[in-house]
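Cross-check.
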Amino acid sequence: MGRGHAVTTPVSRWPAPDDCPCVALMGGTFDPVHLGHVSLGLAARDAAQAEWLVFMPAARNPLKKTVPLLSDMERIRLLGIATDGLDRVGVSTLEIDESDGVSPSYTVDTLRTLAVTLPRSRIRLVIGADSARSFHLWRSPREIERLAEPLVVLRRPDETPGSLLDAMRPHWSPEEIERWRSRIVAAPLFDASATDVRALVAAGAWDEPELRRVLHPGVLERLRSRPLTP
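Predicted model, tokenized:
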């Protein structure tokens, strides 16, 4: 895998069939993608009984002040390598295609576009517990709920539904909290810090055991063989 491997994961503006009944959509920076991203996405897709899982790298996350370590095209390429051979999984370039390279990309704008172009598909938005905690800060959070009901996968520090919901109570009504409870899906806890992974990659610590543990071998091979060009 890596430089010479032909990746079979479909990569396009929208890789799932236009008439797919239900798609689990997982956005994020993926800078770089690690095995936790993939395992959580697959668990959410299966819990929702969705036909497809689509990863959509964000051009610019409005809640993050730093720019990605890797270029847009490299993040897309690495997602393809990390998901190569997986059935009913694709990578969408929609947000990056529509980005001007400077302005933040907002989930609600993406979902509005998908609602028009995919009227026959139901979208479920896969988010981690950390994103659920801050969901009230997202642009138009209740419109997002209407366009793509979230699927929440637990991750540290929220390893139980109770821990997550307690953190969310100040921002949501009791009725809304119960809806959030029903959106939490069972998924294996994967101990990986995207911040730590990014720091190790930036330092070129290719022999660090943590990188070998959390990165797909093909992703690690490609990263160590190419200069970082954000």
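The longest helix spans residues 35-47. The two ends are 22 Å apart (CA to CA). Passed to J.P. for a second look.
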